[in-house]
Amino acid sequence: MNSSRSAWNRLVAAARLAPADMRDVSAPPGFTTRVTALAFAAGGPPSVATMLARLSWRALGVAALLMLVSIVANFKPLLTSLERDSAALLNDPVGEWLDNS
Asked: In Å, how far are 39, 40, 41 from 27, measured between CA atoms?
């Protein structure tokens, strides 16, 4: 255990003696503008994959909207059904008989 700790201490001491890296690592001037221009430059009509991706996102939105509408439309019957089921569970004659035995 001491050998690995002493090796670690030697590595830490060597790292502290190393000179700091003071190079400028920022992007060159105009780099972001060029990257943005290349990203938005459409080289012709959209491909089939791009159109399919757009259509699938729209279909996902429509499906989510239909799901929400169906939940809202069936919320009251769902609550009524749950209340009826819970009332039936509370008035269980077999359960009452077993509890009283």
From this structure: 17, 20, 21
92: tokens are 């269980």
* Element containing residue 56 per DSSP (H, E): helix 48-73
Structure-block tokens of residue 78: 């769902």
pLDDT band at 42 (very low <50, low <70, confident <90, very high): low
The fraction of the chain above a pLDDT of 70, given in percent, is 87
Residue 8 corresponds to which tokens in the numbers above?
């670690």
pTM (two decimals): 0.40
Q: Nearest Cα to 61, choosing from 51, 69, 50, 49?
A: 69
